[in-house]
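tool_call: predict_structure(chain=1)
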Amino acid sequence: MAIKKRIKNLSKLTRELLAEGESVRSDFKRLPDGISADDLVAFANSEAGGQILAGVDEQVVDKAQIGVVRGCDVSDATVLQVLNKAVSCIPPVSIDVYIENLDDKPILRVEVPPSQTKPHCTPKGVYCRRDGSRNRPLHPSELLRLFLDSEASAFAARFEVAAERITDELSSLESSLDSSIRSMSDQLGWADSQLGDTESTLARIQGLVGKLTIDTDNANSRLRALFRQDKREDPVRKRTRLQYVNGRIKEIRDDEGLFAHVVAGGQLTYKGEHPEDSDITDEDAKQLLQIAVRHVHDTERDKKYQIVVKASEACSDDELDQFAAKVADGGEVADGIRDRAKRAFRLGFVIYDNAFVGTAALKKPAASYRAKVFKKASSQLDPAAYPYELGWIFLDVTHRKKGQMTRLINDLLPAAKDSALFATTRTSNDIMREMLTQLKFSEHGTEYRSEQNPEDTVRLFVRNTPQTQKSE
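tool_result:
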């Protein structure tokens, strides 16, 4: 059930959790008694599990909540008490217990991995999961989904075994047919040498070969039909398509003229030349050629780009200066951007040939600022449920529509874990609004007048709206 380890100092993970504050992956308790079955069940039912730190207080520093070590009882009796709570859950929750900071103020770190036997409930029958920095009950639809996922995994495992057995039997059939064809071919060669007095035998063998050819085609058709019926990928067709694409990629790279043309953004035209294989049609060949062209072009283009995401305190003075200058190029914020960037949660950069060409940031704004934004947008949502803001997004015009900003934001957002986020943008900024929509943000509330650009209005976007607010 648990592995108890003793560590003299605070681990790197614990230091990160303390600096991050309570979140979707961590919870702080003053005393081990504060760890409840609800906490253990909530993390076990979550996608990524979580950590519970006992012996830690919350404290506000620079308008951000962090954890402060105060110490607690870490005796065997205390650990056993936590283990008993995990065992009392239904089904029992697996946990690992670590005792840290023994040289100063010892604390307990209880690691709850995501469960493979979810959903779990408390001894009182309460199903819950982690949502931001709190636990919340599972809605019936969520609970049903967890049960279905669990059953689906078991069914998939059984189906996989059955499908493999069918595939093996079909392979055996194909091998048997191949052997029969080879045998008939041998007989045909012998019959040909005896053509003078065995003409009737030759005709009979030729008839058998024709029948076997038809049977082979029928077997192949049945095999493909089986794969289509259960929506499984046909391994022969998949292998043939991959070989075709790799062949076109090699041809492009081996021909300097073609290679330069594709890297420059040019397209190639299909000339109707492909192996005589029923698994590759003319339409397939056209599509696969375009895939090969895009692969060569995107691979060479992306070699020059670099995506960097850092905590603001890890950025050098030069990086902060360049970040502030690039945001200013976008004309989105007023003076003081460098100091504000230095307080951000995460900063992201798009770098092309060692030059900064794009920026984005994940901010953890003060509660007063969040309340102000949601009030201006006439939103009925609770600003406290949205701890992170995505902002300061800008990319030089010559580097747009190449997927680099999407790469940057996809690397930036995981730092927020499963927490809800919000963002704001000018109503006239169609590109930004479209990008936020693609990132699964949705417009909320009403547009309001921009303070920096009075001639324009601002729209509020939110993502991962807490379930309790969705139902209201």
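agent: Residues 140-193 form the longest helix (54 residues). Proceeding to next step.
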